[in-house]
Amino acid sequence: MALGDQLGHDTGQVTGTRVLPPTEQGEARVEVSFESRGRLLDEEVVDMGTYVSVLGSDGVLRGEGQGCTMSGDGETTTWKGMGVGRLLNDGATSFRGAIFYRATSEKFSRLNKVAAMFEYDADASGKTESKVFEWK
Asked: How far apart are the first and last CA of the chain?
């Protein structure tokens, strides 16, 4: 298995953070929402998403999220993702994981048949950058 073509790239900003009750094991849980702009399948898009990450006792962040990506002419695809990450020294986070799309529009229909891998990074000020690659 290998990474294939880059499907998308965007940059944005964390728009909200909320501390959730800890897990039964006492692990910290945080909900993060973000909005970004970029390109997906060579279309200009706006992406909005929310994920919940749990900081395990091993120091690893484990997260699950969902969102919606919209093109300039209103076509959309939704997505769900899951990944692992780490906290960096300055308060930044870095995640890597898998993402799956569900598109009803013709423009994004190719994504329905794709397993994709993502890279998501947020710096200490909340600026985000993500890249999505087809998993072959």
From this structure: 6
